[in-house]
Write a structure and sequence with these properties.
heterodimer; A: 236 residues; alpha/beta; six-stranded mixed beta sheet; 9 strands; 33% helix; 25% strand; B: 235 residues; mainly alpha; transport (chain A); ATP-binding (chain A); AAA+_ATPase (chain A); ATP binding (chain A)
Chain lengths: 236, 235
């Protein structure tokens, strides 16, 4: 499934957060989404998911906006914030409500709990979860509908080395199955190990959209390449 | 329709899987028993001119309704204070459908729980007043609380903040009406009569269908404004 941004623009008052982004995110590979803080990454992801309305332009999933999907969780899985669950609700109940909202069988809840290693913590309130467990719960929710598209905003934040490695493997596997995986991150070395393709933005504008090797070419590391690309856009 | 049913099902699970609902319903029951008991004592001493147990219970509701209203408002404002609203909108991108589902869940719970609480209040009042006629006020209390619940959910969607929503609700239901009524000026009294709490009390104690209509109008207006605000603003 193809994610298409067409002249996607978002203004907050006088500030332009996202400025005419035109790009395609293709299936079958992990696409890394990079940029300094305030570059417009999260705003872009929120517009893809219909949470923020574009000032102009469009964000489409296989030609259709997010809100036109009757059961969106069965097509698009997203991890937006580390803790998307109410702190007083158990992880399992959170996922059960989520499953019900998209007519996903309750049995799938136990599957994703197992898949994310949360089976033992499933009956604990999410307020007692560590940051890493919160991330795992978010990923469990994203996988609930067995979606073709996965959108993850900073999924490795707060994870221990085992967790980081687990996510890397998971994202690579999901892409290998032909799914579309779009993942934003600040951790460049991690991106270098996970992504096949990179999209770099700064000040809401597209700076690069190319395979990892192409961006790395002539640089010692992704970090070097990144600083060359984003020079001048880190501070406004 | 299947989509609405799924959204209602999810909201139903969400309502019953935090402690808020139990605190609120327990508080409602205690406030009702205490309120009805207190007014029944006043009535027995001739301090107020309520005579039947049902009428006294309706007066007792003026405290208990606040617990219901707080619960209803939290169903919407809690999404903003806990930061879960974005996740919720990714599950259910249609914001009016989400608001409708929340309203249905709140209305169903307050209708049933409100009727039970109303009946308990009537029993307490009847025991103190030695009045055997229980009347049919309890289901009417449930109906009034269900409408008030929809009003609170819609207002929560429009205002988002838990504190501001609760303050506005308290102002409209409890604080402002007596301030308007004290000078006893016709025009001010008419405004007070149009407030949801006063209109509800007229429906409960005076059987006024105009009162019921006014409470319904508040619920519908809050729902429409809430849905519009959810659609208009970014999550």
């Amino acid at each position: 499934m193809l994610i298409t941004l067409e002249q996607l623009t978002k203004r907050f008052g006088a500030t332009v957060a996202v400025d005419g982004l035109d790009l395609r995110v293709r299936p079958g590979r992990v696409t890394g989404f990079l940029g300094p803080n305030g570059a417009g990454k999260s705003t872009t992801l929120r517009m893809i998911l219909g949470l923020d309305r574009p000032t102009s332009g469009r964000a489409l999933l296989d030609g259709r906006p997010y809100f036109s999907y009757a059961w969106p969780l069965r097509t698009i899985g997203a991890v937006l914030e580390a803790k998307a669950a109410h702190p007083g609700r158990t992880g399992r109940n959170h996922l059960l409500a989520m499953a019900r909202s998209n007519a996903i069988p309750a049995a799938r809840v136990d599957e994703v709990l197992q898949l994310t290693g949360l089976t033992e913590a499933a009956r604990k309130r999410t307020g007692a979860y560590s940051l890493g467990m919160g991330q795992r719960l978010g990923i469990a929710g994203a996988l609930l509908g067995d979606p073709e598209v996965l959108i993850l905003d900073e999924p490795v934040n707060g994870l221990d080395p085992d967790g980081v490695r687990w996510i890397r493997g998971l994202l690579r596997d999901l892409a290998a199955e032909g799914r579309t995986v779009l993942v934003s991150s600040h951790l460049l070395s991690e991106m270098q190990m996970t992504a096949d393709h990179l999209i770099v933005i700064g000040n809401g504008r597209l700076l690069a959209d190319a395979p990892l090797e192409e961006i790395l070419a002539g640089h010692a590391s992704l970090e070097d390449a990144y600083y060359t690309l984003t020079e001048g856009s880190a501070l406004r | 329709m299947t989509m609405l049913r799924a959204t209602i099902g999810a909201e139903w699970i969400k309502l019953w899987t935090t402690r808020t609902v139990w605190w609120a319903l327990t508080a409602a029951l205690l406030l009702m028993a205490a309120g009805a008991g207190q007014y029944a004592l006043y009535a027995r001493n001739g301090d107020i001119d309520a005579t039947s147990a049902a009428e006294v219970a309706a007066l007792g509701l003026s405290f208990a309704q606040l617990a219901f209203v707080a619960l209803a408002a939290t169903v919407m404002t809690g999404e903003y204070s806990a930061g879960t609203i974005r996740a919720t909108f990714t599950w259910t991108p249609s914001r009016p459908r989400l608001l409708l589902a929340k309203s249905v869940v709140v209305a169903a719970v307050t209708l049933v729980a409100g009727t039970v609480v109303g009946f308990v209040g009537t029993l307490v009042a009847a025991a103190i007043l030695d009045d055997g006629s229980l009347g049919a006020t309890a289901p009417k209390m449930g109906l009034y609380l269900a409408l008030l619940g929809v009003f609170a959910v819609g207002l929560g969607a429009a205002l988002r903040g838990p504190v501001v929503t609760l303050v506005v609700l308290l102002m409209l239901i409890v604080v402002v009406p007596p301030l308007l009524q004290i000078p006893d000026v016709g025009a001010l009294n008419a405004v007070a009569d149009a407030m949801p709490g006063v209109a509800g009390e007229r429906f409960l104690t005076g059987n006024s269908y105009a009162g019921l209509l006014i409470v319904t109008a508040w619920a519908v207006a809050a729902f429409v404004i809430g849905a519009r605000e959810l659609n208009r603003r970014d999550a």
